[in-house]
Amino acid sequence: MDERKFKKVNRRELLKLTPVIALGAFAVPKLRGPLLKKGLALSDWASGKLFRPGHLAATFADSELTPFEKFPINDYDVDDPGVIFENWSLTVSGAVQKQGDYKLSDIQALPKKRQNTRHVCVEGWDVIGRFGGTPLSEFLRLVGADPTAKFVTVECADDYYESLDMATAMHPQTLLCYEMYDQPLTREHGAPLRLTVPTKIGYKHAKYLTDLRVTHVLEKVGYWEDQGYSWFYGL
Amino acid sequence: MPAEVLEIESAKSDEEPVLAVYEHPWVVRFTHWVNAIALLVMVGSGLQIFRAFPSLGAKIPQQDLLNWPKAFAIGGWLGGALQWHLTFMWIYIATGVFYLAYQIFSGNYRQVLLTRRDVPALWPMARHYFFFGPRPPATEAYNPLQKLAYTSAMVLGVLTVLTGFAVWKPTQFSWLAWPMGGFHLARVWHFVTMWAILLFVLGHLVMVILHGWSNFVSMLTGWKVDPEYPPR
Question: What b/e string do you get for B177-194 counting C-beta neighbours within 10 Å, with b at 16 or more?
Fold first, then answer.
């Protein structure tokens, strides 16, 4: 083959690589945001598919617990939003038969579960804590939640908010938690009531709950999700 | 698989024709470049994620391992870096799967996979590269040391994905973390395999520079002009 013809062959082979340039879309500021959002959505979709409703998160022996004083206190605003316990109730709304205000004693009257589970923070650290409370599924049964509803959203005394897919809300280890280390929740850990969701990342475990809403469409997503974090984030 | 070989005749002079060999099929070249970009993004965003908790130990008390400079990180903040990481992991995995499937089903893996037959020749090659030993004759596209490097890179690539899934999904993939020594060590291994890949990349880039233009161009066009080895 003569030299010129070979050059043509080379050029043709080089042109076959042009699809690689498509990745350059990530360098365009206008396209970057939407593309990354799509990527995150794909990961969330895969997370949802990988979630198995009956599959339990690992549980641990008491000897493996992180000491209570080494269980980090994380919040986006204040350690103690100043909940007045005497007046506190959980306001339930949405697709439930019995809307209204539920006292802590109503929740504590439901079956109680204690579990030593891992709390994994999105930052990269994790601790093993002891949590006590009632499975959220028991409470949803009590309030007569519509079984076809898809989301459970909570709001908090510090204006934090979070949402769960129904499969995770019904998971046996998802608790409305009112005890840590066999003691009533302390204020900085979310008294009087918080979520503990061992199958999800830490920021889904909302503290200082005040409102719970069952819905068919996702109305409020979550505080950190609205900043750009993953919504499903199943572990 | 016999390589495609061409004789290139010079247009001007009457010199002997130069041989050119088709060394890298399209899939190899395509996945090489896409994966190179994906790897860069995974490392950059991974290091930004690491900046959020630059430790491999406990949160309380926290002992930082290294404060990675922000200039060598992608994403700007933890949430942004996670978006990059969780987006490009699909590209990284897809190119890896595409590449491995192609190598296996086309038989092209024979070019790059280190086999027992190559082992005796490893030491003479290492002696040549590192201790000024005589240069062993080149008999095929990749010398045994290259095969070792590329085979290791493939294994490391698979390990970065597996350790990544162990960290991302410790509950759904709890069985993955077990052979790694548990969830905590999976994070350590994810970190270690990244540095191992970076070490490979460093060596790879040095060798690319040392081997010159024709060698570099072969990863773009597939054709290597005047190869160091007998192409047939």
Answer: beebeebbbbbebbbbbb
CB neighbour list of residue B17: distance below 8 Å, 6 or more residues apart: B7, B8, B9, B10
- The percent helix, strand, coil of chain A (3-state, each to 5) is 35, 25, 40
B221 Cβ under 8 Å from any chain A Cβ: yes
β-pair partners for A183: A180
Residue A206 and residue A195: Cα distance in Å, rounded?
5
Residue B171 contacts A, CB cutoff 8 Å: yes
Q: Which residues of B touch A201 (CB under 8 A)?
A: none
**In degrees rounded to 5, what are phi and psi of residue A5?**
-65, -40
Q: What is the dihedral of CA A221, A226, A232, A233, to 10 degrees?
A: -150
pLDDT of residue B3: 67
| DSSP per-residue string spanning A120-131 | E-TTS-EEEEEE
What domains does chain B contain, in order, with CATH numbers? 18-53+70-225 (1.20.950.20)
Amino acid at A177: C
Q: Which residues of A touch B221 (CB under 8 A)?
A: 9-11, 13-14
CATH number of A53-227: 3.90.420.10
Q: Please answer whether residues B45 and B75 qualify as being in contact, where contact means their C-beta atoms are separated by less than 8 angstroms.
A: yes
Whether the per-residue pLDDT at A104 is higher than 70: the answer is yes
Provide the residue type at B123 as one letter. Answer: W
The reported pTM is 0.94
Q: Do B50 and A224 touch (CB under 8 A)?
A: no
Spatial separation of the C-alpha atoms in residues A209 and A189, rounded to whole Å: 11
**Looking at this predicted complex, what is its ipTM?**
0.94
- pLDDT average, residue stretch B28-50: 97
A49 alpha carbon, distance to own chain's centre: 16
Span B118-154, pLDDT tens digits: 999 999 999 998 888 898 988 888 999 999 999 999 9
Give how far A225 is from chain B: nearest CA, Å: 9
Residue A36: name the closest of B76, B203, B208, B123 by CA.
B76
| Contact criterion met (CB < 8 Å) for B8 and A6 | yes
* Residue among B230, B217, B226 nearest B24 (CA): B217
Contact, A58 vs A108, CB < 8 A?
A: no
By C-alpha distance, the chain B residue nearest A45 is: B86
For residue A122, the chain B residues in CB contact (below 8 A) are: 52, 78, 82
The residue ranges of every structural domain in chain A are 3-37, 53-227
Check A14 against B171: CB less than 8 A apart: no
The answer to whether residue B1 scores a pLDDT higher than 60 is no
